[in-house]
User: Which sequence fits this backbone?
């Protein structure tokens, strides 16, 4: 099914994350010399996009999906994925992952995204009315934009600090 326009911002971010997973997969087994660079990129991707994406899903998308009885267990599973994945993103930030860890991580992240795209999004598009989807889209837009603003401001503020 064609992706509903209200879910496209999340789908676009899924494409970015999937591209990273594919690159990790193609480069596997990762060389020891490259482990730090991969983890730096993964941590950066979390900071600039995935952290905000997870929060928008947890605050807006999952509560909307939970209202449908048949999606409750899927949402539970997706939330458990977020917990597992957040821990790995944090470990990447601490440069604490092995080549094997990174390959398991990439598989779990791509599996998580596939579940959201093929099961959650598909079903939501069938279950929700156009008006409900539009409301969901608005909520997501606010969550994604507010988070971006909150993330950007401290950096801008830091840049404006007078030199000592
Ligand atoms: Fe997710
Ligand atoms: Fe997602």
Assistant:
């Amino acid at each position: 099914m064609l992706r509903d326009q209200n879910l496209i911002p999340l789908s676009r971010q899924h494409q970015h994350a999937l591209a990273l997973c594919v690159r990790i997969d193609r480069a596997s087994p990762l060389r020891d010399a490259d482990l730090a660079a991969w983890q730096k990129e993964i941590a950066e991707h979390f900071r600039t996009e995935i952290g905000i994406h997870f929060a928008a899903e947890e605050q807006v998308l999952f509560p909307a999906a939970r209202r449908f009885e048949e999606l409750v267990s899927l949402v539970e599973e997706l939330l458990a994925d977020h917990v597992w994945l957040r821990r790995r993103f944090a470990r990447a930030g601490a440069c604490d992952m092995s080549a094997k860890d990174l390959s398991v991580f990439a598989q779990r992240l791509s599996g998580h995204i596939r579940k959201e795209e093929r099961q959650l999004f598909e079903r939501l598009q069938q279950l929700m009315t156009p008006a409900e989807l539009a409301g969901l889209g608005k909520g997501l837009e606010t969550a994604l934009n507010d988070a971006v603003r909150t993330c950007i401001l401290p950096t801008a503020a830091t840049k404006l600090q007078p030199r000592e």
Q: What stands out?
A: The longest helix spans residues 35-66. The CA atoms of residues 24 and 64 lie 33 Å apart. The chain has a mean pLDDT of 93. The radius of gyration is 17 Å.
